[in-house]
Amino acid sequence: MYNYIIFRLGLFLILNRNILSDASCSLPTDIKNSAWEYNYTKVSDNSPQSTILRVSTTTLQNSIINLSAFGTKIRDWTCINSLALSNTQTLVVFKSDSTFSDGPSKNYRLYLCMKFTKVTPDLYYFYLLSDIYNAVTPNERVFVSDEGNPTANDAPMCSTFCKYTGSPKIRTLRRPETRDEIPDKAALCEPCDSTCQVDRCDPNPCQNNGSCVDFKENYNCTCTDGWRGKNCTTDINECLDKQRTAMCPQHSDCLNTDGSYECNCKNGYQETNGTCTGDKMSTEDKSTDLGCNQRLG
């Protein structure tokens, strides 16, 4: 009896390998377990939309990606596969947790294919790469699989879930209350699994510890505090910023330095616990560096 059970179990696994096959899914680290401001253009009427999308480790539960298919509400999705294309681009496939039926005989399942590009840790853009499916409301770019002939989770993404025609429109995920902007030349890199990279970030053109993100025809530098410009080579004069200058104590002068600033006590004052006291200093000591050699941030 034991051998018979093992035989039947083995046979079941072989015949149902497509159903049971599992691929590994890993969302970009920044995106996981976070709420994002989701901006996109509605497929059905081209109207701009803005809402909040909450992403768990590998799921979109009770999601605002909420579709109706033949009376069945579909709004819970689980990531089933992913492909890291580069250090900034990731291809991800989500499968609907629920199936739907268009009649008594067949059940279907929906899939979302997303191609993410990281701009900064607070800003991503992505495209849905499947064709528009008009049988769901609202119309959306989703892949549909016959549940009676299910697509394996580890099926080739670009030739299965992510096949599309037309020109998908850009969608963005921005961390709430942040202001990073999508570069003007941000675009969908085709084909599906291509990064279109001549790596413009190797070597890194961003100076003074700036971080670089490569795009199809350009690159973008995110500068560290105290620097700005295309390649982070322009020093920011913090002493011209009244708010930052106010951080220097009374009876001190703000001195701009490369990438930072210092607060120096005026002649006749000396530093005591971060303030400039009126105790006279020797004429040889023109000023005292307060140790405010600050790099803000």
List keywords for this structure.
single chain, 297 residues, mainly beta, Laminin, 3 domains, 3 helices, 7% helix, elongated, disordered N terminus, disordered C terminus
Count the strands?
Answer: 23
Cα end-to-end separation? 69 Å
Largest sheet descriptor = 10 strands, antiparallel
Apparent shape: elongated
How many structural domains does the protein architecture include? Answer: 3
What sequence of helices (H) and strands (E) makes up the elements?
A: HHEEEEEEEEEEEEEEEEEEEHEEEE
Helicity range of the residues? under 10%
Mean pLDDT score: 83
Query: What fraction of residues sit in β-strands?
Result: 35-45%
> Which blocks of ≥5 consecutive residues have pLDDT under 50?
1-22, 281-289, 291-297
- Which structural class best describes the helix and strand composition? mainly beta
Number of helices: 3
CA gyration radius, whole angstroms = 28 Å
Keywords: Cell membrane, Developmental protein, Differentiation, Disulfide bond, EGF-like domain, Glycoprotein, Membrane, Phosphoprotein, Repeat, Secreted, Signal, Transmembrane, Transmembrane helix
Domain EGF-like: 197-233, 235-277
Subcellular location: Apical cell membrane; Secreted
GO molecular function: calcium ion binding
